[in-house]
């Protein structure tokens, strides 16, 4: 049935993820056949997703519409062969068949097959590079993973001069990424993307074709779509206020360390099992030509040295190993650590490449 079964499988998996989130009882799965295309839509209380599936020549010529109960459809899907078919019958039943398997599913009532996401007026529209937006969403995402009583679990998209900036924080660390904005972008904008759905948003970008996407937003919502196409992801924004994080980003730190990010990540990963269980402490000592790492916990201690180019005086800081490792992992190639002399926020960024910045605060010991 599908022109590209492998690509169709990825799209079906994303539809299932969106259908299973939130209130399953109120989600609706809709389909439209016609013109050699199957379009599937998931409409729930919280999100809306519409994806097209190009069909093999001769399939989906006649137009038809149907709506199904999502849990039933997606429970059957893994059992079907790759070349399964969806065939609407008379508006009351939909056939799923593949190989020697055949099922006739009861279609939902007509009033359940209508409607779309309820949106307010569009406040702004941003044409963006798909690859750049993927980078913007993935680099700082780790810093917004955990709940905090006063900070929304979200990525905050704002304008910073001629850049679109994404910031994530859980109150203990901060990560930022920036990409160029189009010239006609609004002078001010704030979009709060729920971090617990970021992985689905990234998957949506990955299954799209084409180089450009359009990010639209309004009061309480945002959507993402290809610049040339009908696929659509829609979601509410987070309703909380994001903290003013710019003031915690340090400037003009006296010690600068340049080293291989993968080598530092590997060293931290090897040391992690021996950190203490309370604060996962790693001592980082900056010396001429190297960084020396040391951990000590209930089961022993360990050291490792990483070659580095060092500017500034020798010093030692203690960090939460996992927070430092999270900040380093997104960096490919060489990383730069900018460190204070006293216990104060430190910076981690790539020497070259994406506009990414992480703030990591040393432990008070």
Describe this structure in a few short sentences.
By secondary structure, the chain is α+β, with helices and mostly antiparallel strands.
- What is the count of distinct domains? 3
Mean pLDDT over all positions? 89
CATH class of the largest domain: Alpha Beta
Percentage beta strand: 35-45%
CATH topology of the largest domain: DNA Polymerase III, Chain A, domain 2
General description of the model:
This protein is an alpha+beta fold and 365 residues long. It folds into three domains: 109 residues, DNA Polymerase III, subunit A, domain 2 (DNA Polymerase III, Chain A, domain 2, Roll), CATH 3.10.150.10; 126 residues, Roll (DNA Polymerase III, Chain A, domain 2), CATH 3.10.150.10; 112 residues, DNA Polymerase III, subunit A, domain 2 (DNA Polymerase III, Chain A, domain 2), CATH 3.10.150.10. Helices cover 17% and strands 41% of the residues. Strands 12-9-10-11-24-23-22-16-20 form a nine-stranded antiparallel beta sheet. Strands 4-1-2-3-15-14-13-8 form an eight-stranded antiparallel beta sheet. A hairpin with a 6-residue loop joins strand 22 and strand 23. Helix 1 runs antiparallel to helix 4, helix 3 runs antiparallel to helix 4 and helix 5 packs antiparallel against helix 6. The longest helix is centred in the N-terminal third of the chain and has 16 residues. The chain is elongated, with a radius of gyration of 25 Å. The protein starts with a helix and ends in a 5-residue tail after the last strand.
What keyword list fits this structure?
single chain, 365 residues, alpha+beta, DNA Polymerase III, Chain A, domain 2, 3 domains, 9-stranded antiparallel β-sheet, 8-stranded antiparallel β-sheet, 6 helices, elongated
